[in-house]
Design goal:
Blueprint lengths: L15 E4 L6 E2 L5 H7 L7 H5 L4 H19 L3 E2 L3 H10 L3 E5 L4 H11 L6 E3 L10 H11 L6 E5 L2 H9 L3 E5 L12 E3 L2 H9 L10 H7 L1 H8 L2 E3 L5 H11 L3 E3 L7 H6 L12 H12 L4 E2 L6 E2 L4 H11 L3
Parallel strand pairs: 1-4, 1-6, 4-5, 6-7, 7-8, 9-10, 9-12, 10-11
Antiparallel strand pairs: 2-3
Helix pairs in contact: 3-5, 4-8, 6-7
Length: 323
């Protein structure tokens, strides 16, 4: 297999897979319409989150009704087409994987037994106190897998999976709902699990989520060229310049020595207060990890020196990168 290098990515490069249960591994045919009708006047809401707002007695009744539907589905569970092949691929390639589900552990275990799906050692359910799309549940999974968030990919069939992955700064693969409007939030959208397995077996470079707008506007040649460019950020106005150039695909940033001083932080209210007086290198690294994880901070004496004027820097990049 040919290596897939930045600015591209592929799931085969990720060392931890975090899988949804229903819709990715098990088909349980869950229908929560009776819950919406009975408890929420037929409004489509986040059931488990809204449950916390209900009176205690009604909340207890809701949990019992939800679990009854989930258990009914678990008892008729079947493997999703391609699910067994996906698990086989993961085990064949020694890829660590986990299951993260909004179901109860009991329902997941019953469904796994009925559908003859082998569960991994790490299974996180709502019994553990965290619910998708809360990023902490994915970060907990990556920690238990012994992998960094940047090394993990989330495989899911619903918005909660994709939003949670984005919040946790993980790669996100959507299956089964590739035609949904929010599918653009994913790094990769597959029509089903079978297609995903085929992509895993036949890897080719994929454009990560953060660079898809650049590709659409400027093409692959631009991205490949600008990603290899190293620039030295100025001492002033570096947040605005960093965000714009990283969004254009610049992949290497040199950072001036120093710390995030109060007068600079004051001009950028969107920067988290915890970075006040932290080394600038760490501030920039953390920003890139969360939004442009393939870009990095480097030491490069030949880096292009930028000034503090955004428009002039953008014009300079245009001159340096082949069109």
């Amino acid at each position: 297999m040919q290596p897939i290098n930045s600015p591209y990515w592929h799931p085969v490069n990720q060392r931890g897979f975090i899988l949804d249960w229903d819709g990715v591994l098990a088909e349980t045919g869950l229908d929560f319409s009776p819950i919406y009708e009975r408890f929420f006047d037929d409004k489509k809401v986040m059931i488990l989150e809204e449950a916390a707002k209900l009176p205690e007695m009604k909340r207890k009744m809701l949990y019992e009704a939800v679990e009854a539907i989930e258990m009914e589905g678990a008892k008729r569970a079947e493997p999703v087409d391609g699910a067994l092949e996906l698990v086989s691929w993961l085990e064949k390639h020694n890829v660590s994987w986990a299951v993260v589900s909004r179901n109860t552990r009991k329902c997941v275990e019953v469904a796994a037994e009925v559908a003859s799906i082998k569960l991994p050692p790490i299974v996180i359910t709502r019994d553990d106190g965290l619910l998708k799309p809360d990023p902490r549940v994915f970060l907990k999974a990556s920690e238990l897998l012994g992998k960094k968030a940047s090394q993990c990919v989330v495989i899911g069939d619903y918005l909660y999976d994709i939003v949670g992955a984005r919040r946790a700064s993980m790669r996100a693969v959507l299956v089964m709902r590739a035609d949904e409007p929010w599918s653009v939030w994913s790094d990769l959208a597959c029509i089903n699990v079978i297609e995903l397995v085929d992509i895993l077996k036949n890897p080719c470079p994929l454009v990560p989520w953060e660079y898809q707008p650049v590709i659409e506007k400027r093409g692959r040649r631009w991205l490949e060229s600008v990603f290899g460019l190293a620039v030295r950020l100025p001492k002033e106005n570096y947040f605005e310049i960093l965000a714009h150039l990283a969004g254009l695909g610049v992949g290497k940033f040199c950072v001036c020595e120093g710390r995030l001083e109060a007068d600079v932080w004051r001009r950028y209210p969107y920067v988290d207060p915890r970075y006040l007086w932290e080394p600038l290198e760490r501030v920039v690294e953390d920003f890139l990890k969360s939004r442009f994880p393939l870009a990095r901070v480097v030491k490069d004496e030949s880096a292009v020196v930028l000034n503090d004027n955004l428009q002039e820097n953008l014009a300079l990049i245009e001159e340096l990168v082949p069109q």
